[in-house]
Amino acid sequence: MGTKKSSTKTVSPFTQTNAFAMQHGIILGILLIILLGTLVMGLTDGTASLISTILVVAYPIIVGRLTFSFRRIVSPIGRFTIFQGFMHALLSMFYAAIWGAIATYIYMRFFDNGHFVNTLVSAISNPQTQELLKANGLWQITQGQSDQSLLATVNQMQNIPPSLYAEMILYMNITLAPITALIIGLCTMRLSSSSSQ
Description:
Layout: H1 13-41, H2 46-74, H3 82-111, H4 115-125, H5 127-135, E1 140-143, E2 146-149, H6 150-156, H7 162-188
Antiparallel strand pairs: 1-2
Helix pairs in contact: 1-2, 1-3, 2-3, 2-7, 3-7, 4-6
């Protein structure tokens, strides 16, 4: 009778990190979609604006908590490098940015019908808002040779295709993710093995 060999395939650390980051990216993507929704609703509703502000602050904290959870699973008592924490946080935020960009494209392409820009126009058309913007020097926008008001610039936003809004979400997240991931990597690293108690 032959003996059955059990095959245990070792997984590379990057593959393991990427797998966890994909799962955590879905959670963060849902959070990012809620954040983007409350940002749009926050243009007219104070409560939604407050919720979006809280979510902006909570987002990197949640990324950090997910990275600590990842560390607890893959290295409960062993060494955990800054690179492992950095890569997990970075990849998680990249996957979340992809989900956010997809949701932004779908919303702007099929559901918005000019609501976002019209809401911005009505907010900027308010005389009190205009006075506040003028007092802070934000009313005139210089573009080359001609000066243009902020209202005219917002009106031109109606010509922006949905793919550029989605690209903007990707760009902002990809730009800010490395900085946030570096801080999270520093917070989650463990240089030496801790003894179990």
